[in-house]
Design a protein that fits this description.
The chain is mostly beta strands and 658 residues long. 4% of the residues lie in helices and 40% in strands. It is built from 4 helices and 46 strands. The strands form 11 sheets. The protein has a 6-stranded mixed beta sheet, with no helix packed on it. It is elongated.
Length: 658
């Protein structure tokens, strides 16, 4: 019985506008000029069946690779076909191997104007071979006729519908030509090349493609009446009894999915799922599987030959059969690439705070390595020391020690998969959770780094803000070692956290605020250390150092972390040992106050904490008198320094505006 999708597809084809279904007039095609057909004059013609108005009356011609077959016929007596809904007569051929087949109307007089661009399989029809307009060669014959190519046809019998239509009525000559398939089939076009799917509780889509699978030579009809010549294979080892298998096909792919048990060569079908239409996901519910057994999956389209679009995604998801509230959550490696330093490397990760630990449960962390992977260490925190280079992964285990006995765990032998298999998430019956993906970390045997930042000495350990700015600089104590291809950059940081504020090609910087600063030398290779990730005011020099070999990272570069410290302050300008009896009253105040302790001609300055001058005035103060001062109302509230210059010296006092 014709499958539902086939009926739907044929109906859609038969009801398309004539020019869309049929081959267009050859002289209306472009871009395919100058192609010549295989000469046929030396080939003895065969003849179509006398009653080939149905496929049953067609003569099936044996088509060998390299030996063209020519048939002649007449479609004047064609009748409307019940499937294609247009008048047809039929010709047929059979092949014994995968072949690229060409059907040409070369020699037909007058030349035919149109044709159906497809082949039928089975009589009565069970499937068809769709084709692409790119395989129509309008000038291939050189006599006004055209050819149609059908690439990568698997061995079998095919029926060609000869259309009776406008400009295509009467006697015709058809040449069938076959050449051996040269396309390379995908590695998983056979059961022996099956690609293994992961068996986890999460769906991880894997891209697949059936293109050129017919070149593997497979033939036959699978579940849902699909031709599996274009099938590709997958396998999985069951870790539980229930799975959901999903295949999401591309737009013109109708996926047939069949699941088998046993070994390649002696497989038994245990499940079949057929997509509802082109491009619609096919889902198979698999139940009653045996943990530890390997199962095989074949994905193919229902077409005979390759589908119009050949790609899909496949996903296998283990369905837990027991409810378990525990969840290991996930981890993020603190550094995913670490160097051995003096034969030792510390690797660690941070939990992403998405674990679920039921009451009475315990959290444990495992370190695994190798392809299995094998558990080599365990700890109560996700931090481990290793002494060998290699690939490691830190995993979280949330478990109840009353139900999961870890006494049998042997470091260096027990695998994470063996623990996973006994848990609900792995198809077992113990409620616990293991983060199988974990936090992968690579430990390298890093080569010594020749770069050396040397040392810096500040030319002045303290500098003053002058009208809101201060300049600091430093010189080298020990000269940096700069390997070939490396560059030197100077960084200015502030505070104990060494927050990077500026960068320069010389160790000299200008700042506008008081504080504790440090000038550092950085020797680095711009091809390995990306400074584009440094954000001034955010990134710390310690963050940069952590990426370097000297800081436990893997990048060869050198940073003088100690650097040259410099203090920037608002200076009073008084000579060492000088004193002042300058007093402000009242203090705090609203900007109106008096100064006492100065006399004669004076110059008064009010400075912000950054050394910026915000107000100044001159005055003449009698002995014992007070000088009134009024700071403009626009000056912001806060802490200020008042400086008074007079003939007797310099006096300073702190002022609070409120």
């Amino acid at each position: 019985m014709l499958n539902t999708n086939l009926r739907r597809a044929l109906f859609c084809v038969a009801t398309l506008p004539f020019a869309s279904v049929l081959l267009a007039q050859p002289n209306a095609m472009s871009g395919l000029q100058g192609i010549q057909a295989t000469p046929v004059q030396d080939v003895e013609p065969a003849f179509g069946g006398a009653s080939n108005v149905t496929c049953a009356g067609a003569v099936v011609n044996a088509l060998e690779v390299g030996t063209p077959v020519v048939v002649t016929g007449d479609n004047s007596a064609a009748v409307a076909d019940p499937v294609f809904s247009v008048p047809l007569v039929w010709e047929a051929f059979s092949t014994t191997q995968c072949a690229d087949v060409t059907i040409g109307y070369c020699g037909t007089t007058p030349a035919f104007a149109g044709s159906l661009n497809t082949l039928a399989v089975g009589c009565p029809l069970t499937s068809i071979v769709f084709n692409s307009a790119a395989n129509i060669l309008p000038e291939a014959c050189g006599d006004g006729n055209f050819t149609i190519s059908f690439p990568n046809l698997p061995a079998g019998t095919y029926y060609f519908p000869v259309l009776q239509g406008t400009g295509s009525v009467g006697a015709y000559t058809l040449t069938f030509t076959a050449t051996a398939c040269t396309a390379t089939p995908p590695a998983n076009a056979t059961c022996a090349g099956a690609i293994e799917l992961p068996s986890t509780t999460e769906c991880t889509p894997l891209a697949g493609n059936v293109a050129n699978a017919t070149a593997a030579g497979n033939t036959g009809i699978g579940c849902g009446n699909g031709d599996f010549a274009d099938g590709v294979w997958y396998s999985f080892e069951a870790t539980g009894s229930t799975y959901e298998l999903t295949v999401a096909p591309s737009a013109q792919f109708n996926a047939h999915v069949e699941v088998f048990e046993g070994a390649c060569g002696s497989l038994t079908s245990i499940a079949c799922s057929v997509g509802a239409n082109f491009g619609v996901p096919t889902v198979a519910e698999l139940e009653g599987l045996t943990a530890g057994e390997t199962y095989f999956i074949r994905v193919n389209d229902w077409y005979a030959g390759s589908p119009v679009t050949t790609t899909f995604f496949i996903c296998l998801e283990l369905v837990p059969t027991v409810e378990c509230p525990a969840s290991a959550g996930t981890l993020t490696a603190n550094d995913d690439d670490v160097c051995l330093v003096d034969g030792l490397a510390n690797i660690s990760a941070t939990p992403n705070e998405n674990a679920v630990v039921p009451e009475g449960y315990t959290t444990l962390f495992f370190l695994t390595t190798g392809s299995e992977p094998v558990i080599v260490q365990g700890a109560l925190t996700p931090a481990f020391n290793v002494t060998e280079a290699g690939s490691y992964t830190i995993h979280t285990l949330v478990y109840d020690d009353a139900t999961l006995d870890l006494n049998g765990l042997v470091f260096g032998q027990t695998t994470a998969a063996s623990i996973h298999a006994v848990l609900v998430q792995g198809g077992g019956d113990i409620c616990a959770s293991l983060d199988l993906v974990g936090a992968p970390i690579v430990v390298d045997e890093c080569l010594p780094c020749a770069a050396d930042a040397g040392t810096l000495q500040a030319n002045a350990s303290t500098v003053c803000l002058d009208n809101g700015t201060a300049t600091m600089d430093a010189g080298h104590g020990e000269t940096p070692v700069v390997p070939e291809g490396f560059e030197v950059l100077y960084l200015l940081t502030s505070g104990e956290d060494l927050i990077i504020r500026q960068g320069a090609l010389t160790p000299a910087f200008t700042v506008t605020a008081e504080g504790e600063y440090t000038i550092h030398t950085l020797v680095y290779d711009p091809t390995t250390l990306d400074l584009g990730e440094v954000t001034f005011g955010v990134t710390s020099g310690l963050d940069v150092n952590a990426q370097l070999v000297q800081g436990g990272g893997v990048i060869c570069a050198a940073l003088d972390v100690v650097g040259a410290p410099v203090t920037v302050e608002v200076c009073t300008g008084m000579a060492e040992g000088s004193t002042s009896t300058l007093a402000i009253g009242p203090n705090p105040n609203n900007g109106r106050f008096t100064l006492q302790g100065c006399e004669g001609l004076v110059h008064v300055q009010v400075l912000g904490t950054d050394g910026r001058l915000v107000y100044e005035q001159n005055g003449n103060v009698q002995l014992g008198a007070a000088l009134p001062v009024e700071v403009p109302a626009g000056v912001a509230r806060g802490l200020y320094t008042v400086r008074v210059f007079s003939a007797t010296g310099l006096g300073t006092a702190r002022l609070v505006l409120e």
